[in-house]
Amino acid sequence: SYQIQILSVQKVSRTGKTMYRLEARLDREVSLRSGETLSLRTEAKPLAPAYRDSFGKDKEYFLPVIRAKDNREMVLVPKGTALIGTKRRGSDAYPEHFVELDTYYIDRFEVSNRDFLIYVKESNARAPLSWENAEFPQHLADCPVIVTYTEAEGYARWADKRLPTEFEWEKAANGLVTPIRVITEMGIEYQPVKTLYPWGNDSAFSNTNSLEFWKERSTYGKNQRGLLPVTEFSETNKSAYGAVNMSGNAAEWTSSWYEAYSGNRTPNKRFGRQVKCIRGGSFAQSL
Q1: In terms of Cα–Cα distance, which of 88, 93, 82, 84 is closest to 258?
Q2: 113-117, 130-134, 187-191, 222-226: which range is least confident on average?
Q3: Measured between alpha carbons, how far is residue 277 from residues 65, 175, 196, 259 in Å?
Q4: What pLDDT shows up at residue 53?
Q5: Smaller CB count within 10 Å for the chain: N or C?
């Protein structure tokens, strides 16, 4: 057991990843053999709360946080109202409605194969079914891991997290934070707005790993048609809250059952507590 004093911290970006270079002082000498490393791990801290400006409506400020267990960045989605569903009758997402949500955090990036490998090693979990012969796919190390619902839930529990509900996922994937002012019979109200895509309403196919993205190309950099690293499109395909690749790349699990919304009478034999909701689409689907 050693006491370590952190003297300085410098943020360093390399190949799309954010790293930190620390200068530290130990309270005693440490003997290391050739090839050995000294690892530092931060203790888990309470999540930073959201806070509003003096008007309480127009702006939300939110702070990212890194959880110690899996060392992955999470972004905060402040408490408020989310606009869910669609006005299109006959859709499984009908009708459009409001949902009140508390403050929560969600991972900034999808879980990569490299991230999942750490979980497998530290918890002695089974390799995911997507790893051929249970071997780590080195060529897809930084791409999103493809897992079953049970495997996703196991990772979340290990990381002291949980899977988001479908409503939490949809709010985190929205392209707008600020509600709009609406004049009603009751006076001025502030209502949330839902965008078509995490970056807004424009069909920017070059922003996301979708079917449209691959129509005129078979390779992208060193990557073949298929999954791309979780940090790809970090600036162009991010939501208003900072969550990346909520559209395209790999579909994502939520903890919600695939159930009809109140008022939806469209026949669907899959409705009920049979399957879980997935969101976000994938590289093989259209926007």
Answers
A1: 93
A2: 187-191
A3: 26, 21, 19, 9
A4: 44
A5: N
Average pLDDT value for the chain:
86
Cα-Cα end-to-end distance for the chain:
52
In this predicted structure, what is the pLDDT of residue 2?
67
Dihedral sign computed on CA atoms, order 212, 215, 221, 222? positive
pTM: 0.77
Encoded amino acid at 97, one letter: H
Q: Is residue 222's pLDDT more than 50?
A: yes
SS3 sequence of the chain:
CCCEEEEEEEEEEECCEEEEEEEEEECCCCCCCCCCCCCCCCCCCCCCCCEECCCCCCCEECCCEEECCCCEEEEEECCEEEEECCCCCCCCCCCCEEEEECCEEEECCCCEHHHHHHHHHHHCCCCCCCCHHHCCCHHHCCCECCCCHHHHHHHHHHCCCCCCCHHHHHHHCCCCCCCEEEEECCEEEEECCCCCECCECCCCHHHCCCCHHHCCCCEECCEECCCCCCCCCCCCCECCCCCECCCCCCCEEEEEECCCCCCCCCCCCCCCCCCEEEECCCCCCCC
169's CB contacts (< 8 A; 6+ apart) are 106, 246, 252, 254, 279, 280
Instruction: Measure Cα distances from 225 to 112, 228, 233, 239, 274 in Å.
Output: 17, 8, 16, 24, 32
Q: Which residue has the tokens 């969101």?
A: 279
CA distance 226 to 113: 15
pLDDT band at 80 (very low <50, low <70, confident <90, very high): confident
**Cβ atoms 221, 215 nearer than 8 A:** no
189, 180 Cβ separation under 8 angstroms: no
